[in-house]
Structures are given as C-alpha cells and as structure tokens.
Amino acid sequence: MSGSVRLEGLSVSYGGTRRRNAGASGAAPVLDAIELEFASGSFTALLGPSGCGKSTVLNTVAGFVRPTAGRVTVAGTPVDGPGPDRGMVFQHYALFPWRTARGNVEFALKRLGLSRPERRRRALAALAEVGLAEGAEKHPAQLSGGMRQRVALARALAAEPEVLLMDEPFGALDALTRTRMQELLRELWQRTGTTVLFVTHDIDEALALADRVVVLGGSPGRVLADHALPAGPPDPDLRTLIARQLGSP
Ligand SMILES: Nc1ncnc2c1ncn2[C@@H]1O[C@H](COP(=O)(O)OP(=O)(O)OP(=O)(O)O)[C@@H](O)[C@H]1O
After folding, report:
1. pLDDT tens digits, residue range 162-202?
2. Topology classification of domain 1-84+164-173+186-249
3. Protein residue whose Cα sits closest to atom 3 of ligand 1
4. What is the pTM of this model?
5. What Cα–Cα distance (Å) separates residue 65 from each residue in 20, 21, 25, 56?
6. What's the complex ipTM?
7. Ligand 1: which residue has its CA nearest to atom 18?
8. Is the CB of 100 under 6 A from ligand 1?
9. Distance, CA of 46 to CA of 215 (rounded, Å)
10. Of 39, 49, 130, 177, which has the most beta carbons under 10 Å away?
11. Domain limits, the chain
C-alpha cells in the first residue's frame, strides 16, 4: 500500500480547478470520472494523443492541480497539495541555472527539514546513483541534455519518494541517450520499488519500460484501454493493438 495511487472518479476542468478560483464554472472538462488504481511498486505508462489530459493526471497526483470532482489518494491518504512522497521529472529539466547539480538536488531537500550536511550527503548519493558523481559541482549549462536529466532524476529521487511522476522525461533526448536513460530508470525502479507513472507519446518506450500501459483518449479524457504487459520482449501484436487504440477517437 505504501506507494499505491488511486484516482477515484477524478474529473478536472481548468478554470474550475485552480486554487484561487475554485468554484468558477463553465470550463470544459479535461478529465471525466477517471477510475484507476496503481499498485505500490508498479510501473505504468500513460499513452494518449496530445491534449487528452495525460499531464493533467500527473499534475493532479503531484498536487499541483486540484480535482473538480473525485479525488486522488496516495497510500490511502487524499492528496491535498505537493509533498515529498511524490517526486516529479519534467521533459525540460526545470533546473536552477545558477546552482550546481548538487545545489539543485540539495535545494529540493530543503522542505524535508534535513540538516545541511545531511542534505549534502543525500544529494551526492543521489547524483552517484544516477551516474553523475563527477558532475556534482557543475552548473546545468556545463552539462549535456542527458546529464541534466540525470540531475532532474537525482533531484526527484533524493527525497526517496513513494511515487515517481515522469512527464515525457526523455522526449528531448537523442536516441542513444534516451536508451541509456531508460535503462537507468528501469534499474533504479527495480532497486527502489518506487511506484512510477510515466507519460510518453512513444509506444515503444512504453512497452520497453512499463509493466502496464493505460491508453487515455477522447475529450474529456477517459481510459480507453488498460493493458498488463507480459514479462519479456515487447509483443508486436500488442503494439499494433495499442497503435490502433491511440488512433481511435
Ligand atoms: N493550466 C492549464 N490551464 C488551462 N488549460 C489547461 C492547463 N493545462 C492543460 N490545459 C488543457 O487541458 C487539456 C489537457 O492538457 P494536458 O497537458 O493534460 O494533455 P496531454 O495529454 O498531456 O497533452 P500533451 O501530450 O500535448 O502534453 C488541453 O486542452 C490543455 O490545453
């Protein structure tokens, strides 16, 4: 149960969902009564056409967006804002350019109330875990795209979250770096047992990484299909089926 995530009748309409104007009405729903459960330690890819609400699902679990109706629970507790039990990695790293790699990771640990030496120790350990021990004192501008994304991953993992939310994290990387990052992520996931929700546009990436693929679609977004992936190499028939589901309205 520790990192289980449940979406219970989750509906989101922007305009009616933002904290400051909650209660506003009239906005078109983006998500409509989504029911999903992600087991603790599972790795789920969310696939779907652009605009169907994949990022909105992640942002709601992260606590950045509030549901219009329904709720999200993590380990049985309703989400009521961002928290250290959930780490997020975006496509565009979102690193502070004036901080070093270590400084970026340490900054993310501040809200945990850890001492300075402990933040430093954890930041260096997380950077070592993603293979970036050598780059710890470099600034983002001195790092390649793949290295920056390693920093972002270290930053998300350093707080030892129960849930890792990843929004097209490797979309901006070249093919070789992307494959390396996928391997690293699988390795970290197997080692840590974190629950992963991974948004991607790429069916092959979803099939290579996840143990489950949820296809979202429509407007408002809803669940079109939910596939448990068998262990072993990706199944070409399943790939064809998912491609068809992605093309459907
Ligand atoms: N902060 C926001 N305010 C208003 N509308 C938003 C906001 N964020 C997203 N939307 C709208 O909600 C819908 C779903 O967006 P979302 O980013 O969740 O989809 P997505 O499936 O992740 O898309 P993509 O694959 O293109 O990233 C879109 O119509 C988008 O314009």
Report:
1. 999 999 998 888 888 889 889 989 988 998 899 999 999 99
2. Rossmann fold (3.40.50)
3. 14
4. 0.90
5. 11, 12, 16, 7
6. 0.96
7. 53
8. no
9. 6
10. 130
11. 1-84+164-173+186-249, 86-160
